Fold DUF2817 domain-containing protein.
Amino acid sequence: MYTHHLSNWYRTHFEATLHGRYITLEHISSLLEKLPKKFNLTQIGVSVLERPIHSLTIGNGTKKILMWSQMHGNESTTTKAVFDLINFLNEPSAVAETILSNCTICIIPMLNPDGAAAYTRINANEIDLNRDAQVRSQPESVVLRTIYNEFQPDFCFNLHGQRTIFSAGNFDKSAIVSFLTPSEDAARSITLNRQKSMEIIVKMNEMLQKLIPNHVGRYDDGFNLNCVGDTFQSLGTPTILFEAGHFPDDYHREKTRELIFYAMIDAIQYIASNEIKGRFTDAYFEIPENEKLHYDLVLKNVQTDQNETFDLGVMYEEILNNGKIDFEPYIEDKKMLKKSFAHKIIDFQEPIAQTYIFQSFSLDVDVMEYLRKFNKIDN
């Protein structure tokens, strides 16, 4: 069984103070304050609600990497992985030395602190920052573009999280980690910048296939210049979209966070140690494209008062409740289900389900009561 060469280090050195899906500026502020001086910590702007936005820069190399997390406030898994990366770079090792002697890394750990506090995708003005790259109507968008212009990166890592609906291709395999090299034009031309991004993605995929075989996906590369990745790619910087997805039974994304950490380390180490020429383009397109094929839960053979039998497709809605995220089930589809797979299947003809059945089901009342009893995602 393959394990990543950093797995022993990770078990004892990951940033344990960050846990779960609700990660805000308050959670990371003390960590930023404790950073040693070799991390150049700078407040680079403020959000709509005047929360500070920080960058930290480390390394002395000529290869410059810019990365940012929580552009969408409710996509926090990569923020946890970023602080695991910070812990790794803060300790002496041969890998860290290679990275820091060959690379300079600028990290914005939380671009949208208002969205993080409210646990929303959008910012306080209800704008999706990943659709504001051209107009730059929001202060957070201006902050990111200003850092991009000043730092002049050689590579960009655009760090995001994705929903549980995504599968890696047309298979019952959740997209635990997904990647994309954004397009530079509507024709989706395979430019040198995209080829360089593809080369790095292929190397990350080779590693991840040993850990999570067939669970790596590739996003559709439809062009939208309003998106930050498409803009930076079109400006001449090879850009990689990272998407943290669903590992089985890992709704708090702790296992996914570890995999994102490994992927970032492998990507940065590869950049530090190699001249990126744009190889392995064909291997990039062999990564299956993401499809929206998963429910969180399917209830099979649910019987109504009229003795009709239904299959029900259930999703979880993420609800911020007193500083934690609750996963509230709701019925998305009945009878002819639109999606092909589920992360969990409950057959109401099986004994485990029968223990919850006290009467035949009314779709509006009794099934939802069952779901509330069954839902065991603990915070």
In short: The first strand starts at residue 40 and ends at 46.
